[in-house]
Amino acid sequence: MREVASYSRYFLASGLICLVLMFALPGYAATTFEASPKTLTVGVVPQFDIPRIQAIWRPILDEMEKRSGNKFVLSGAATIPEFERDLIQGEYDLAYINPYQVVKVGERQGYQPLVRDVSQNLHGIVVVPSNSPIQSVEQLKNRVVAFPAPNALGATLLVRAGLYDRYGFEVVPRYVLSHSSVYLNVALEEVIAGGGVQKTLSQQPEELQDRLRVLYKTDSVPSHPVVVHRRVPVQIRQQLLSVMLALGQDAVGRDLLSAVPIVEIGVAKVKDYQPLTEMGLERFQ
Amino acid sequence: MGIRSKLLWPIVLAFTVLMAVIHFYIVPQLLAGEKEVGIGREHQILGAMESGVARVLLRGDLAAMYAILDRQIEARQGVWVWLELRNPDGKRLYPLSDHPQLKGEFLVKLNQPLVWGGAKIADISLVVDLEAEYLNALAQMHNIELLLLLVLMALLVAGLLLQERQIRRPLLRLEHAASHMAGGDFDVQLPELSHDEIGRLTRVFDDMRRDLQTVHKGLVETREEAEKASRAKSEFLSSMSHELRTPMNAILGFSQLLEMELTDPENKQHVAEIMRAGDHLLELINEVLDLAKIESGKVDLMLEDISCRQICTESLALVRTLAKSHRVDVSEQVCENMEAMVYVDFTRFKQVLVNLLSNAIKYNQSGGKVSLSCEMQASERLRFSVIDTGIGLSEAQQQRMFNPFDRLGAEQGGVEGTGIGLVIAKRLVEAMGGELGCQSRLGEGSTFWVEVEVSQSNCMGDFGVAEEGGDKAESAGVSEFRKVTVLYVEDNPANLRLVEKVIGLYTPYALMSAHDATLGIELARLHCPDVILMDINLPGMDGFTAFSRLQNFDETRAIPVIAVSANAMRQDIDRGKKIGFADYITKPIDMNALVTAIEKVVARD
User: Which of A70-74, B226-230, B370-374 has the lowest mean pLDDT?
Assistant: First the structure.
């Protein structure tokens, strides 16, 4: 009997321990998840090749890791279509995308603008060779004009929408894959004109810039934002916002951001990008 | 040129040619090849880039094209100094900037059309600068050349050292050994033995040295033995000459006295037989000694220019008595060459002719004829021929004619002879550079001839004296004697007695005698004799020394001295005449000759 009683006591003790464990462990796990630094997947629109993107963004992310305690994995697609596909599928926790992508896929997939360069807005330009006889944008009607890609916001969509909405004519687009190619094609007179953005034009070599003249400038839209997915906890979103804004407050951060380039980092709102929806840019895709 | 130079110069020449070929032909070829390779490589790089450029160009992605080309130019920095791409219309699409001024020796322009889908879409022209590559290759080549030169120099030095050690030094040692061996020194060090040709040569040389050493040792021993034997023979000859002649002197001398004193014709006949046999024995002894001397090469010849006439006259005079006794008519056929001079030893040549003439007389028939003639040969030699009307010689006899002691069967006849006279004659003639021969037919007589060299100088000799001498010799016994004093220095009592008797009986001379040289000199100084007869082999002081002592005194210096000696060797006679003896009489003394000699000296005074 003594043995049976003793066994029963052990059994009860074991059952109690198991119960305690059953309730305690998940709770412990949950608190650990909330408190531990989160690992976030970061995507960057491939305006440049991957090594260059890595060179610009990895130091920024490293700095943010240091300041926030979170981990950032820079995952990238080689081409814009691939990137957009990944974006649609919600692959990234954090992403640097173009304004049109914000209105096209961002909201639908639950991406919210976090920060952007508030110092300058994005607008498209039309360039012609500096010695070109063309003085008015109307002279481009039905002529072949070079553009980087069909979806390029500033260089293609804003320009084409502007020409059509303001002057009422279309041009024959010729896509030459990059802004630099547009400028070269124009400078070498392979085409009579090309669409670009001021920011990329100013990045071209002096020699090339000297051979180009800006013929037309479109209305502006807000510049590229960093967006964050809604699944990222609010605290972390807040933390990320404050860390990124803090980058703009000191020399080290500003220096890092200038490579993007972001001159003055500020808060981005969904409504900033609302006008883009109204422009009906999908007409030109 | 030494073996080292012979090796060195061809190798240096070969190395120089090799280096010249490498430097002036192979290196430029290799550099040209390097250039070709460089151009080919740049073409390849250009080709590898082509499709990428074409693809982006067709898409109008000029930026990508610029990126590709810029990247490539950067990658080929320093080599691709200019690259431009033009569309088919000639418009330049790359680069934006203009063609800079390019300078350099090693610039090469490459043109490559850019083709896509069979159509030319652009032209690429590339200027590459291969200077760095060329200079690099050149530096490498020079380094290789330098290395090769060093290796060649090292090889050359090593080769020379090896040659010095393996070839030259052993050869020099062999040469040194050979020169020592030539001097009779066989105990020299030879090079170390190796397994090559030099080693084999050394081994063979060593074998040869051993053989030579053995042979040389044998030769030296043989020579020493031969010299010893020769000395013994000479001593024996000299001794025999003296020992045999001295008793013969007494035998013949006293026989002569006995013959004069005897009145009984029979006894006189017996003594004459003794004298004849004695003469023959003396002749035999003389000839044997003569032959022995000739055989041993010790015959001394005094070659001089003698006229043919003198030789003929004197030779004939010497055999006339013999001819008379054999009743053989001897005639001298005087020919035009009688005045010619020949270069011979007068006495010895006369001996040869006398031998031939006496043979011709002795082996002639009674009433036969013998003639002596001489004639000039086409070979500029003078031939003396002795022609007889004797029995002649058969072919077989002629073949054996010059064998010593072979008298060709004459020993059975009554004619005396030694069988070596002709051999001596032949050897003497040959020693004088002449030739002796014979033509003969059995039953018809023989012709013996001697050919000798004609004298170079053609001066005439005075043969009158000899002729007179010959006459006087003939008439010695009947000469008119004058009262003069003769001193005879002689230790042999027999000889002394003999001469005393002859002088006392047959001459008007007064004779005094001394038994040794010292007494002889004293007597000479005291009495100043007209003539001194001096024996050579005297006890104590010999005749030569005594003579020179006499020359030292004023009172004796002018006295003529006649040597009288058993030393009948030629060198003795020559020596005697050379130091100043008035005459030299050999023992056994021929009384006639002695009297003649004294008479001649007295007459000269």
Answer: B226-230
Residue in the structure block whose two tokens are 């030299």 = B584
Query: How large is the average pLDDT for residues A277-281?
Result: 83
Report, as an integer, the average pLDDT of B100-119: 88
Interchain CB contact of B91 with A (< 8 Å): yes
Q: Which residues pair with A123 in a beta bridge?
A: A220
Please give the residue that has the higher pLDDT: either B457 or A225: A225
Please, what is the average pLDDT of chain B? 83
What is the distance in angstroms between the CA of the first residue and the CA of the last residue of chain B? 74
- Residue A239: strand, helix, or coil: helix
Q: Lowest mean pLDDT: which of A164-168, B276-280, B295-299?
A: B295-299
Q: Does the pLDDT at position A267 exceed 90?
A: yes
Question: Two tokens at A167?
Answer: 């002057």
- Average pLDDT for residues B292-309, to the nearest whole number? 76
Residues in chain B closer than 8 A to A178 (CB atoms): 61, 63-64
DSSP-derived secondary structure letter, A155: I
Residue pair B248/B281 in contact by the 8 Å Cβ criterion: yes
Q: Quickly state the pLDDT bin for B532 (edges 50, 70, 90).
A: very high
At residue B472, the pLDDT reads 35
Q: Which of residues 120-149 of A touch B (CB under 8 A)?
A: 146
Sheet strands side by side (includes B510-514): B510-514, B485-489, B531-535, B561-565, B583-586
- Strand locations in A84-207, DSSP E? 94-96, 111-117, 122-129, 144-147, 172-175, 193-197
Q: Which of B64, B91, B96 sits opposite A181 (nearest CB)?
A: B64
Question: Is B63–A187 a contact, with Cβ atoms under 8 angstroms apart?
Answer: no
Task: Choose the closest CB to A190 out of B60, B64, B96.
Answer: B60
Whole-model pTM: value is 0.49
Q: Say yes or no for a CB contact (<8 Å) between A177 and B97.
A: no
Whether B90 has its CB under 8 Å from any CB of chain A: the answer is no
* Percent of chain B predicted with pLDDT > 90: 17
Torsion of CA A158, A164, A165, A166, to 10 degrees: 100
The C-alpha of B67 sits at a distance from chain A's nearest C-alpha, in angstroms, of 10
Which chain B residues have a beta carbon less than 8 Å from that of A177? 59-61, 63-64
pLDDT at residue B465, rounded to an integer: 32
Concatenate the DSSP letters of all residues of B40-104 into one string: HHHHHHHHHHHHHHHHHHHTT-HHHHHHHHHHHHHHTTTTEEEEEEE-TTS-EEE-SSPPPP---
Nearest to B479 by CA among B321, B589, B595, B594: B595
Contact (CB, 8 A) for A197 and A125: yes
SS3 category, B440: strand
Closest CA to B498 of B535, B530, B531: B535
First to last CA, chain A: 87
Q: Are strands B381-388 and B369-376 parallel, antiparallel or unpaired?
A: antiparallel
Residue A209 near chain B (CB below 8 Å): no
Q: What is the pLDDT of residue B283?
A: 75
Q: Which residues pair with A127 in a beta bridge?
A: A194, A214
For residue B214 the two structure tokens come to 């053995």
pLDDT value of residue B305: 83
Please answer whether residues B268 and B255 qualify as being in contact, where contact means their C-beta atoms are separated by less than 8 angstroms.
no
